[in-house]
Design goal:
Elements: H1 2-14, E1 26-34, E2 37-44, E3 47-51, H2 58-68, E4 73-77, E5 89-91, E6 123-126, E7 130-137, E8 140-146, E9 151-153, H3 161-170, E10 175-183, E11 195-197, E12 211-213, E13 224-230, E14 234-239, E15 242-244, E16 246-253, E17 256-259, H4 267-276, E18 282-284, E19 302-303, E20 317-318, E21 332-335, H5 348-351, E22 371-379, E23 382-389, E24 392-396, H6 403-413, E25 418-422, E26 434-436, E27 468-471, E28 476-480, E29 487-494, E30 497-501, H7 508-517, E31 523-526, E32 539-541, E33 573-577, E34 581-589, E35 592-599, E36 602-606, H8 613-623, E37 628-632, E38 644-646, E39 677-680, E40 684-691, E41 694-700, E42 705-707, H9 715-724, E43 729-737, E44 749-751, E45 765-767, E46 778-784, E47 788-793, E48 796-797, E49 800-807, E50 810-814, H10 821-830, E51 836-838, E52 851-852, E53 855-856, E54 870-871, E55 885-888, H11 901-904, E56 924-932, E57 935-942, E58 945-949, H12 955-964, E59 970-974, E60 986-988, E61 1020-1023, E62 1028-1032, E63 1039-1046, E64 1049-1053, H13 1060-1069, E65 1075-1078, E66 1090-1093, E67 1125-1129, ...
Parallel strand pairs: 3-5, 24-26, 30-32, 36-38, 50-52, 58-60, 64-66, 70-72, 91-93, 97-99, 103-105
Antiparallel strand pairs: 1-2, 2-3, 2-6, 4-6, 7-8, 8-9, 8-13, 10-13, 11-12, 14-15, 14-16, 16-17, 16-21, 18-21, 19-20, 22-23, 23-24, 23-27, 25-27, 28-29, 29-30, 29-33, 31-33, 34-35, 35-36, 35-39, 37-39, 40-41, 41-42, 41-46, 43-46, 44-45, 47-48, 47-49, 49-50, 49-55, 51-55, 53-54, 56-57, 57-58, ...
Length: 1882
Amino acid sequence: MQGHCLLQGLAFLLLTVIAGAQETLQLRLVDGGSRCAGRVEIFYQHSWGTVCDDKWNLREAHVVCRQLGCGVALNAVCCAQFGEGSGPIWLDELKCTGKEDQVWKCPSQGWGQHICAHEEDAGVICSGFVHLVGGHGPCSGRVEVNSGGEWIPVSDGNFTFPTAQVICAELGCGKAASVLGKMPFREDSEQVWAEEFQCEGHEPGLWFCPRRVCPGGSCQHGGAVQIVCSGYTDVRLMKNGSSQCEGQVEMKTSGGWRTLCASHWNMANANVVCRQLGCGVALSTPKGAYFVEGHDEIWRDRFHCSGSESFLWNCPVTALGVPACAHGNTASVVCSGNQTQLLPQCNDSWSDPAGSAASEGHTATCSDSRELRLVDGGGRCAGRVEILQQGSWGSICDDNWDLSDAHVVCRQLGCGVALEATFSAHFGEGSGPIWLDELNCTGEEAHVWQCPSQGWGQHNCRHKEDAGVICSEFLALRMVSEEQKCTGWLEVFYNNTWGSVCHSPMEAMTLSLICRQLGCGDSGTLNFLVPPREGSRPRWVDGIHCRNMDASLWQCPSDLWKQRSCSSNEEAHITCAETPQLRLVDGGSRCAGRVEILHQHSWGTACDDSWDLSEAHVVCRQLGCGVALNAMREAHFGEGPGPMWLDNLNCTGEESHLKCPSEGWIQNDCSHSEDAGVICSGFVHLDGGGGPCSGRVTVNSGREWTPVSDGNFTLTTAQVICAELGCGKAASVLGNLPFREPGEKVWAEEFQCKGQEPGLWFCPRVPCPGGSCHHRGAVQVVCSGYTDVRLMKNGSSQCEGQVEMKTSGGWRTLCASHWNMANVNVVCRQLGCGVALSTPIGAYFVQGDDESRDRFHCSRSESFLWNFPVTALGVPACAHGDTASVVCSGNQTQLLPQCNDSWSDPAGPAASEGHTANCSDSRELRLVDGGGRCAGRVEILQQGSWGSICDDSDLSDAHVVCRQLGCGVALEATFSAHFGEGSGPIWLDELNCTGEEAHVWQCPSQGWGQHNCRHKEDAGVICSEFLALRLVSEDQECAGWLEVFYNQTWGSVCRNPMEAITLSLICRHLGCGDTGSLDFLVSSREGSRRRWVDGIRCRKTDTSLWQCPSDPWKHQSCSAKEEAYITCTETPTLRLVDRGSRCAGRVEILHQRSWGTVCDDMNLSEAHVVCRQLGCGVAFDAMSQAHFGEGSGPIWLENPKCTGEESHLWNPSEGWIQNDCSHSEDAGVICSGFVHLDGGGGPCSGRVEVNSGGGWTPVSDGNFTLATAQVICAELGYGKAASVLGNLPFREPGEKVWAEEFQCKGQEPGLWFCPRVPCPGGSCHHRGAVQVVCSEYTDVWLMKNGSSQCEGQVEMKTSGGWRTLCASHWNMANANVVCHQLGCGVALSTPKGAYFVQGDDEIWRDRFHCSGSESFLWNCPVTALGVPACSHGDTASVVCSGNQTQLLPQCNDSCCPSAMTQQDLQPQRDTLPTAQTSRELRLVDGGGRCVGRVEILQQGSWGSICDDSWDLSDAHVVCRQLGCGVALEATFSAHFGEGSGPIWLNELNCTGEEAHVWQCPSQGWGQHNCRHKEDAGVICSEFLALRMVSEDQECAGWLEVFYNNTWGSVCHSPMEAVTLSVICRHLGCGDSGILNSSVPHRGSRPRWVDNIRCRKTDTSLWQCPSDPWKQRSCSPKEEAYIMCSGKRPQSCPTTAPCTDREKLRLRGGDSRCSGRVEVWHEGSWGTVCDDSWSLAEAEVVCQQLGCGSALEAPGEAAFGPGNGSIWLDEVQCRGREPSLWACAAAAWGQSDCKHEEDAGVRCSGKMTAIPPTPRSKFFFCSEPALSTFEDAVDKGLYQEIDYPTNPEKENLLDSPGVFHSLLSLYEFAISVGVFSKQRPHD
């Protein structure tokens, strides 16, 4: 008691209570009609007040709008425009930057400081957070939200109806009538809002709805979302003052509840109301039956429901001209009730059209299963009559059709009466059934199908007799003017007559709606200066008041229809204005030509004054034509007509439309000779093929060409592309092709062309879900100049006749030369004419047709004739009348005859080719490996396999082959595998052809597969039409004389005419680039040679020179002076060399087929371009002066002038090789690289991130493989992947994730080169980020007698070569991992040094601490710090069981009992395997692997050990088993927190020599009487901790290591940069550090370790090699004082592993050293409960955070309640633990607390070095005096200390040593017996 009083008294003198509070400031806008407009008001000091408008401008207004979530400011309003406020004027003279997040954070005069009156109140008009665009007004359209800078569309992904309701309500547009998804976005690849709104429906605005960030920042969706809002917000049925299922119909609008008029009210409307209210179906509609006197005016809007709508406001509505409702004539409905009741079904007798009329309006009928409509008449009340019956819409025949029948139709549709019954398909012919005929209505029927008729589907009519109706309520609108379309007198068609519309009041909203309805723009004005019109006409309607939510003029309320609604002076003359339109004409395509603008409904031109690429870029962008290639002037595309609309345009080039500053409309002095033009890149091109007409499909987004993927790409789309490019028809579409660059951006839409569109731009598109199309690769299209084929006979196209093909030049006949049955079969198949019967030459010849000389070489399997290989080069003109013809079998399906063994056997007779069909088409023939299709090894496709022919043959055999392939005649029959050996079968041998056979397999032979040959005897052929091409030069590869190989001889090619397209094709054909030029200055060659061909004219559609038309082959086609000498050029390539990685080094360019360098006139802008071009991220540095060594070869470039945005380095420069540089000036670049590991324990571990060129983007764990990790580790030079961990948090919530999956095989040189698969929807399925840990250990083997086996000395491969491992700390767990890794079964023993080989390198000292379950040795924890050198020969060895699968022996009860004899317990750990490997041991919650609560894995569950009889002997076994040295302390009473799960062992009684703790005698598995508060723990000698000691700095100070239960210094020799970096990262203090040698050295303490040499692969200090542990490793002068700096982790969630300091933080205080205590556990921050919370716990927290001593330990959420989990409770510290985790506590997350009990601390903020303390019972003591100590604290000292400190006396506790004096006082109290030291008993 005396001790208690002493401590209580001292505490009472030190402490008092502080309390304070602060109210929350609020902001609003009032009296502006919405929450985003109005007078600015602030809530401060419990009062709303205003802001003065002095210096009030858009900057201040922007802050207000942003703070309120109202988008951006449109206007900053002064002078109390929203009315004068009341209350205080809180702020004046605000000076915002516009970036502040709250308006009161802007500089001002101060709260309440002003000289203003309320007439100066400031206001704001904001854009709002949401609007609807592209609809019929502000109340319908696509949903867009304002990000603060621009409007961004919202996608339809998980967009809900409640969200639409919130939007409509916020916009003042009533309720949502419909929500429509899958709408196109405004622009291709448009950014989409990256959140999903999850509104409940009751929120005041979209801003207030819950949101969910879309995974990877990209929402899965089908397109944009569109909303249509309605002014009608609710409906009810009122009877006797309450809402029921019968009564008067009332609708709620913005003006309140309104009754509806019974006029035009019908059962279809009533059924919708009943369904909407959940009241079943409508029974009747009694007019006025429930009328209540005194209601507001009856609402005149008329609803025209079909009966199927879900809400009444989904029905069409009209109001224009509707008269006022008669008194009491209100609509009423009687519903069946809440129960589900279906409309009665019609039977034949009741609803037959010949039956009687039913009564409408009072009772339900069965007719609602049918529907009626009028179509193609321009409105719902005029058109062809159609009925929906049996699921199909059909028409009515006009036999006997008259006004009586028409009256029924009009009445049924609510369209008044019939004005006209039309006949003879007046509104066009319908399709589908003709349902009714010979109607004979009385005119009184409720439904037209109740009229007498022939019966359903009974008729003798055709659709040209379809009946129609014009009803009295058919309405139409037009402008009447002599010469203008969108300006004139407004007229409406009503009651079958056109009449004027009166202009009163016609506000802006009404005029806008009229102009939109007429398609004349979006705004209009009344023209009062136009004289009244002459003549008489009806003036139908006046008083039109359109509302915000009206979508057409017919919905606008007005006065009723009258013949004379106003005087002639009041007729409306309206001028509409539209957004101007743009086009390019007379340029040959829609993306080139003269610029023309539609303005005031006339097309005109633009003048070329100041016309340049800036204006041209805007034109191309606006038209979707890519980018501008040229800005043309002086009427380059011809002079245009019409006005000259614009002149002196001054665009920046970034505008979306040609709305640039100019002289103004038609303000110019230009003539049409100055018309401006543009040539754009176009929207689509084909890239990388054999010319402009083949290649990968790419489209231009406005900045760059983006590839289109093969996802849902159709032939129809390909046809549109080929037609647009002038390339004919699509011959083939090929998918699954590689993209040009890995990770290349892919076009984010699918094109759904129908085939008739004028260009790809006009095709429907569907945005891909999540912005990423599901695909396998790029798509390639090959176009053909041939667009159609037909067979002509007697002037008509049939299934026999002369073959004609359509090209861009018209229809051409084909020559019969080289025409064969294979070609013919394809034509018949293509035309749907069966199969070919014969090919009669010239039989159908028609005089005068043009001819085509192109030759087709079909294989039989093509779908279209233009899919064949084609040749034209050197083909002669066709003989007169020698045209190709075909006789097909006809339209019926007919198969080619099948071959039987006797008919098609190679030894059989030859069949006749060219006249009759044969069966041989099931086989195929080809020549391969000869450089062309007409030379090579002969191969036959037979029985599904390609095989060769044995060379026992001659020229006769070869002739058959050449003829069959259409390759002319044989020049040579080759032997002995002249073209290489084949594979597969050898099909034929000993051929003996006559030379006349049609197919080579018809020649006599040994038979299929009968031979005695090998592939070295494979036969080959060179045919006369084998062609080859080359350039001949002495010293250049891609420049020289062009020669062609023809008729087995090389000869020249003549250069006439050789246009650019021909030269380009030749260079591509030769692989020498994509452009070429003729050199006329080269002297003629000497000598004689063939000059084979002249007049070559390649076409855009040709893909090789062989397809180009030319003059025929001749020996002397031209003179020697006309031989072609060509120079080809290619696109350069780039690389970095001599740095050891592909992303750093000297810059080299391949140009003119030579690698050369770049002069060092480069900076970071150029370096960025290099890195981007190479896929190496961004540039870190631009190196000069041959930093990476001098190169060789040319210096290609000097002084490139890049902006940093270019795609290639060579775009802007002084020119190739124009420089005066030497190689001593070679430029270099260091790039960031494509991949790095971030947030780990160093550069060799962390989350995988890749650089897209703009920033580091994390890679997710979705399908991330170990092979990919191996590639990354190898690329980074970090050895092998030790582990891959997924499901990790990203650095930031909603962080963008890399949208591809890497599929590395493991052997790639870098991640960039691995195959990738774009994730579906641009969002990879994943659980989180992926982390990789690399290890310098790259391989392991067991060496015996010089070879690697399953037993031997353990050797590991590191970057330094193979190293043996030391036997110290080597155990069976490690050995088992090695055996498992090598596929050698399990470990049998670990004989030390048994396989030692003299002369090996120094034995590796790294110690592995395996559990036995790891897959690789380098996955085990490793330590090296302080490990001594290994004694000679003491090498680790392993004997494995062998390659066979062998399991460790399983324990049975007798084998492994818990209570064993001492003899049983003799350890056999180095000789025999034990069954214990199926169990595992660990220490947890102690801050390291060698300290913590003891846990055992048994029967699949981790459980603890009870502390009964727990002592150092038991603890020694645990430490030894874990390779953690010896036990320093055995802890009790859940010192490291309470565990969970089973308590496995109790009353252990170890000798200390056991190999495993479970071999010690005990009560037996699970036998105990303990609770988890008695869990046992251990502190082992190899428990290590690290800290910085400094008075006032967290990341600078003396480096100390906790070893052998004592803190001591670390010596600074040699401490290189990598070691300092590892230390700083280990401490969470950055990634670099420096030694400070100027700090005075300290007093005496252990100096534990010296000579630390960390390696790049080490992730913590414990892995770094060093000298052994010593008490005096160096002198005091050599203690290390380190200052860390650089990139530090933002918080624990971004760092793995986290240090103890990183897992603890303070929040809510007034400094970094005060606040609520929060701890990081299981991926989230949580709090600590204040139960048992005292200064002792606070001291540990303060010391752990480097915040000095604890001043107070407040509880009860003194710093505000936290959120999340309450992780810790009943924390009980002594005060000197190294971290909070070393204190006893309840199990994680186990508490009965609320956040009102969150614990806090207030620290002094000054770090005080604690002098080293000798080992004692107080520090990590065995006796649990802690509980007694805390009992005393609860009753005495800490009852008083646990309150906020009096600020006046805070300095007392802040003085050095006060807290430690209190602790010393406590120790003194123990020594004199105040507190008991006895261990409590449970």
